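My hope is that you will study the record closing this message with an eye to the fold:
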Amino acid sequence: AEEEEEEEEALGEPDLGGLFVQPKLWLLNSEELRCVQDLCIGRPDVGSITFDGITDCRGLLEHLTEFVVIGLGEVLVYPDQRQKPPLGRGLNKAARIVLLQCLPKASEDLSD
């Protein structure tokens, strides 16, 4: 496992500000980046967002930390609305979100 980490660093794993990305976009060529299946972006112990199906990830890696913000209890995609592409392009599409360490407000009735 240690050898794998060193190999990834040698291949230029970018600083993603604590985010993880699956698949590892920095290891893909331009053609592979054009049709990434089930892109997942997350923050360990906080949560993740998965874009089901095919996502064109060309040019995404350089702007990932601007386009996706994952914090306790929230996931923001394109927090700067001026950067948001038309519906269906880039990350402006349906996704599944998993949030960890989230509890309902104490006043909510959980008996159902």
User: Anything to note?
Assistant: The CA atoms of residues 14 and 26 lie 8 Å apart. DSSP finds three helices and six strands in the chain. The two ends are 45 Å apart (CA to CA). Helices lie at 2-10, 30-34, 64-67.
